[in-house]
Amino acid sequence: MPNVVIVGTQWGDEGKGKIVDILTEQADIVVRFQGGPNAGHTVVIGDTKTILHQIPSGILNSGKQCIIGNGVVLDLATLLDEIRQIRQQGYFTDPSALKISENASLIMPWHKKIDIARERKKGKNKIGTTGRGIGPAYEDKVARNAIRFGDIFNDTLLRDKIETTLEEKNFYLTSYLGEEPLNADAVLNALTALRDELRSYPVNASLYLAEAVGQGKNILFEGAQGTMLDVDHGTYPFVTSSNTTAAQAAIGSGVGPRQLHTIVGITKAYTTRVGEGPFPTELTDATGDFMRTQGGEFGSTTGRPRRCGWFDLVVVKHAVRLNSISCIALTKLDVLSGLDSINICTGYRCGETILHEFPNDLSVLEKCVPVYETVPGWKEDLSNVSSYGDLPQAAKSYVARLEALTGVPMCMVSVGVKRSQNIMRSNPFDAC
Ligand code: IMP
Fold it and tell me: Among this protein's residues, is 75 annotated catalytic?
C-alpha cells in the first residue's frame, strides 16, 4: 500500500490539518517529520475545533499510531499541555497511540528567550517568527549541541549538557541580547519534573517505521508550514528553520526515500502568509479584507491576522517541482464565493521581462509586479456541495484552470472547515 506525504505548497496555513484528518482514515500511522510548536493544525469535528501544534493530527482518530519524528523540534512542557487539552476533549485515551523519536531535538527555555529577544533587537528587519524558539533550537541541532528527547532519561548526561550549554547561552543572553541569565538547576528541575509523564513515549522511530513498512502498513507523513517557508528553497531569510518539502519526510522520520510514494500538495484557492517577507500577490485592499474575514485568516498559533492575496501560480509551480507533487488538495474554495471575478497570477513582470519561475534573489522580486489572468467568479454558497458536479460552473472552471496551469490533478476540493465539507475526486491512498 502506498505511503502518502502531505506538504503545504504556499506559505503555510493551507489547511493541512483537515486533509490529514480525512486521509488518516486510510492510514495506520501518522508521522510529523519537521517543525515544532510553530505549527497550528486545525481540525473541526462536529462543532468542536481542535488545534494541534506538535502531535500529529491523526491522534483525533482512535486506533491510529502517531509518531513524532527526529526532524521535529519539541517543546515538552507545551506538548504535555496539548496532551491534557485533547484528553479533556475525549481524544488520546490510549497512551500507546503516541511515540516520540529518541532523537528529536528539544526546545529549551534559552531557545525561546533568544528567539524573542533577537526579533526585538532586529526591529524593522525582524522575520516575524512565532516566538516558539524554533530557529535557535534547529541552530543547536546543527551545531551538535542539542539536548535530544532520549537524553532526558539520563541524569548525568542531562545535567552535564544543560550546564555546559548554559555557560555559552547565558553569555549570549546577557552580553549580547541584554536578557537575564537562566539558572541551570531551575532548568534541570523543570525538565525532570516532566519526565514521569513522558516515559511511555520514546521510540527508535526509524526501526519502528521500517517494521511497519515490512508489514505493509499505510503511513501518512504530515508536513508543517509550507514550501515557501523551507529554509533552503523558500523566501530566505523570511522562512522557518526546517526543510518543509517532501524529501524531509524521509530525513525527519528515518524512512528511506523509496518509501515516499504519493506526494499530496495542499494548496489554498488563494494565498496567505503570516510574518514578514515578500508576497507578490498580496492585496491590501477590500478584497484582501474580504478573504481574511470570509476565510477566518488569523494565525492558529499566534492569532496574528494573515496577509491575503490572489492565487500565485509561480509559487505553486515552484512547489510542484520541489516536492514532486502527485496531486493537489485545493482548500477553502468556498471562501471565494461572492467575488465578481478572480485573478490568477501567472507570472511576474520585471521591466520588459516576465518571470515564470520564482527568483532566488529577493531584490529582483521587489521590482516585479504580478501578471494576472482574470476568470469569472461565482455567487453561490459552496459549503453544502458534496459532489464535484454540483459546484457552480464558474467554480469548476476555476479548478480546471488551476489544474491546467499547474499540470497537476486536483484530487480533493475542500469547501468548509468540517470533515464532511470535502469533495474527494480521487483518493491519494488509492492512486493519484
Ligand atoms: P518560526 O518558524 O517561528 O521561526 O517563524 C519563521 C516564519 O515562518 C515566520 O514568518 C512565521 O510566521 C512562519 N511560520 C512558522 N510556522 C508557521 C505555520 O505553521 N504557518 C504559517 N507560517 C508559519
Answer: no
User: How far is Cα 382 from Cα 379, in angstroms, rounded to an integer?
Assistant: 9
Domain ranges of the chain: 3-102+204-424, 105-197
For residue 196, the CA-to-ligand 1 centroid distance in Å is: 31
Are 237 and 251 in contact by the 8 Å Cβ rule? The answer is: no
Domain 3-102+204-424 indexed as CATH 3.40.440.10: yes
What is the DSSP-derived secondary structure letter of residue 45?
E
289-340 pLDDT per residue, tens: 999 999 999 988 788 899 999 999 999 999 999 999 999 999 999 999 999 9
Choose one of 112, 122, 240, 300 to mutate for the ligand 1 pocket test, by most ligand atoms within 8 angstroms of C-beta.
240
Distance CA 329, CA 321 (A): 16
* Å from CA of 125 to ligand 1 middle: 15
* Residue 42 confidence class, pLDDT cut points 50, 70, 90: confident
Counting residues of the chain whose pLDDT is more than 90, the rounded percentage is: 93
What DSSP string runs through 36-69? -TT--EEEEETTEEEEESSS-GGGGSTT-EEEE-
Confidence of residue 432 (pLDDT cuts 50, 70, 90): low
Q: Structure pTM?
A: 0.96
Out of 13, 115, 140, 230, which one is annotated catalytic? 13
pLDDT at 302: 82
| Residue 13 annotated to the active site | yes
Ligand 1 is surrounded, with C-beta below 6 A, by 11-13, 38-40, 127-130, 132, 134-135, 224-225, 229, 238, 240-241, 274-275
What does the CA dihedral 232, 236, 241, 243 come to, rounded to 10 degrees?
A: -30
Banded model confidence at residue 67, pLDDT cuts 50, 70, 90 = very high
Domain 105-197 in this protein, CATH class: mainly alpha
